[in-house]
Each structure stands twice: as C-alpha cells, then as structure tokens.
Amino acid sequence: MYRQAVSSSNLKSVGYDPCLRVLEIEFLRGGVYQYSGVPQHVFDGLMSASSKGQYFHSHVRNIYPYQHIF
Question: Are 69 and 32 in contact (CB under 8 A)?
Fold first, then answer.
C-alpha cells in the first residue's frame, strides 16, 4: 500500500485502501500497523487534522482492530 509522509510528532506516513477500508500507519518510533474497517471519513479526518497523533488516538486507536505488519 502506498503511504504518504505526514507532518506529525508521532506518525511518519499514512496510507488508505478505500475498497478494503484498511488504514495503514507507519510510526516515527518504528512499526507499521494496519487498521481494519476504517471508514473513508475517518481517514479524511486524520489527513486534515492539525494534530494527526491526537486524531489517531481519539478516532482510531483502541477502536479498530489492527495488526502489526512490520
């Protein structure tokens, strides 16, 4: 999945597959995670948020199932 770099103190890059509804996040401290069942509007909100880390913690983390892919 293609990920684009983002300006964040926590996230390094973000990708999204709208057909599969999978959000992929690479963290600055290492690790890439895929979150399943994420609606398009949550991805859009993340990408437009002034604090992507805060948005992630409020709208994605501990809400959607995930897997650590590397």
Answer: yes
